[in-house]
Amino acid sequence: MSFFDKMKAKAGVGTAALEVDIIQRPMAPGDTLKALVRVTGGKTEQKMNYLRFSVEHYGRWYVQNASGGTNIVDGKIRTSFGDWEGASEVTISAGQTVEYMMEFVIPADVPGTGKTSHPLLGEFECKHKFYVRADIAGVKDPEYDTHFNINRQ
After folding, report:
1. 19-59, pLDDT tens digit by residue?
2. Distance (Å, whole) CA 51 – CA 84
3. What is the three-state SS of the chain?
């Protein structure tokens, strides 16, 4: 690989691509997020070190604690996170596509999307995101993310 090819690969040109099809988008706590993740090889054979995923909930919200009080959560929590089993140390040939099916159940205690208010604590807002990244050795890693809404009744 020439110097210019290496520089283009570091910028993501001609390297592996990541495509995600959301098969089932969750709408409420307890629903399942189902996604088909495809990693397609670039111009040359490349090694995928791992395929990392996360289901994230971020913003500011409150939850009742076991003693009847209220806890404020301010930041981000991940209810699913890690490297996908069977997707580490995989060699992807030029133009080859490998597929991985992912399924995650949204926990029952996840807050709903959007703004809510508490009579004493004020306004809160929460958002939800599904994120995937393929770690390809020596090049810019392809990434994907999408937001989804969780409705609370």
Report:
1. 999 999 999 999 999 999 999 999 889 999 999 999 999 99
2. 6
3. CCHHHHHHHHCCCCCCEEEEEEEECCCCCCCEEEEEEEEECCCCCEEEEEEEEEEEEEEEEEEECCCCCEEEEEEEEEEEEEECCCCCCEEECCCCEEEEEEEEECCCCCCCCEEEEECCCEEEEEEEEEEEEEEECCCCCCEEEEEECCCCC
Rounded Cα gap, residues 124 and 114, in angstroms: 8
Structural domain boundaries in the chain? 3-148
> Scanning the structure block, which residue is given the tokens 């939800």?
128
- Asked whether the whole model's pTM tops 0.85, one would answer no
Chain position carrying tokens 């937001």: 147
> For the sheet containing 32-40, what is the strand order?
17-24, 32-40, 97-105
Q: What single letter denotes the amino acid at residue 27?
A: M
From the candidate CATH numbers 2.60.40.640, 2.40.30.10, 3.30.420.40, 3.40.50.2000, the one assigned to the domain spanning 3-148: 2.60.40.640
